[in-house]
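README: folding subset

This subset contains proteins for which both the sequence and a predicted structure token string are available. Records are stored as plain text. Below is the entry for Adenylate cyclase-stimulating G alpha protein (315 residues), shown exactly as it appears on disk.
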Amino acid sequence: MSGLESPSFLTLSGLESPSSLSLSGLESPSSLALSGLECFLDQVHTVRRPDYTPTEQDILRCRVLTLGIFETRFQVDKVNFHMFDVGGQRDERRKWIQCFNDVTAIIFVTACSSYNMVLREDPSQNRLRESLDLFRSIWNNRWLRTISVILFLNKQDLLAEKIVAGKSKLEDYFPDFARYQTPPDAAVEPGEDPEVVRAKYFIRDEFLPNIHNILGEKLTLNRKKKNNECSAVYKISCSGCDRKYYGETCRGLKTELKEHKADMRHHRDTSALVSHVDDRAHRPNWDEAEVLRDNLPKKQRKVIQSLYISINKIT
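--- output ---
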């Protein structure tokens, strides 16, 4: 007896509306196989036909574990793209290292609707929390610092269905959601449920602090060597002065290299800074200034060179 004539199929085909089955009642947090099942239950009579050919939507709704590495090459507006599709399962991640050489960007895809599901390989771990942890580890990986990361928050439609149904409450899995307020600048589609909007932005904001916190750490990190591929702008700080460098008595000039997101507007008047360096007992460390000047980006090097020469003259 073939699968198309099995008792299970005959039972389903005998239902007036197979999709009227409560899939939420069947679905357990560890169940991944039921994802997209409702679509196929609605067209069970079509699917059973020997000449059935799946549509694009049918293919998109199928779930197949990605095992190994799949390469795809395509062209958009005469620009060639080379994409690697890798499995997200824990036992597949060790293979990722093969794909990171000369990569321009990492596309990180996570299913927003997985907030009430667990990993196939670890039933004790929430799938969305696993995505958050994995995203954090990728973003914070020192070997990937120069690679752009694109975050795709996928399956927004399934997230909306779950939130509206109300059977799996987001706050039961992420307690902070109970106190979360939708941002004032949130983009709301006409007729969209406010609770769905709140859920979408909550999940987005769960990922963003990972970026902001780590960026903050990187932007304040003291460095002795310049990374040529780093886009951060450098600043110079002066001990004994505030950041404006005006109206203060400079008790010594300390050169320090820090990654900083500000521009060089505080150094536009180097003569004002030089005029405060009048205490001969606290001479600058010229060796440190020399190293600093050599490691600065080209645009800022002239500023430091001018400052260095001016101070050298008055001391």
